[in-house]
Description:
Layout: E1 17-25, E2 29-39, E3 48-68, E4 71-94, E5 97-113, E6 123-137, E7 142-151, E8 156-166, E9 171-182, E10 185-197, E11 201-212, E12 215-229
Antiparallel strand pairs: 1-2, 1-12, 2-3, 3-4, 4-5, 5-6, 6-7, 7-8, 8-9, 9-10, 10-11, 11-12
Amino acid sequence: MAGLSGTAVAGEDQPRREVFSGVETTNNYTGVYAGGGYAFGEGLYGSGWRVRAVGAVGRYSYDGTLFESGSYVPTEFSGDVSFLSVQAGYQIRRGPLVVKAFAGIEAVDQQISPYDPGNSVQGTALGLRIALETWADLTGRWFLSADASFGTAFQEYWELTRIGYRLGPVLSAGLEGGVLGNREYNAGRGGGFVRAHFKTFEATVSGGFTGDYLLDEPSGYLALSLYRAF
C-alpha cells in the first residue's frame, strides 16, 4: 500500500511508524487484514530501509463436485484462509516518484470443508513473499499508483493500479483495476475509489466488479482501508 507517501514532503520532521488495516467483501468472500511498519533513514516519506508485518484472515465458498457412490455430486465448499508475512524493504524517493521494494517470509493456511481433492491450495505452507509499490504525482492534482506482490506458498499474486484526482485538500477520487489469484484460479477486477486524506490519517473506500473463486460469473466487491502514520 502506498499510504501517505505521495502526499508528504521528504526531509520534514517525519513519523517513522505506520499501522494499517482493512476489510474486503464479495458475494462469496470476506476478509480482514492488519499490519504495521517502521522506517529507518529519513522516515516514512523519505528514502531508506524499513520493516513491516501484516496478517489476514478470510472465509470463502465455491461450488464444485465430489465423486460419491459412483457419480459426481454437486457440492458447496467452504474455505478458511489465514496469512502472516514479515518483510524488509527499501524506499527510494525522487521528487514526485516513490518506489518501495520488499522481500520476506510468509505463512499461509488454507482449510477447505469438505476436503476438495481437486484443489491443490489446501493445508499450511511457508514461502518467500516479494512486493513492489510505486507512487507518482503526475501533476498537482493527478496521481498514479501501482502495487504488486507475489508469494511462493501457493503461487498467490496480486496487482492493483489506481489513477486518481485530488478534488481538494482532503478528498480524492479515481479509477482502479488489477488482477489476483493463485495456482488454482485467476481473476481480474475494475472499479473506483474515494479517499479522505488528513495529515497522518487516510481512509479509502473502493468498489466495482471482480472475478471470483472458481466461478465464471462476475461479482461485485467493496473494500475499506485505513492508514495512520505516527
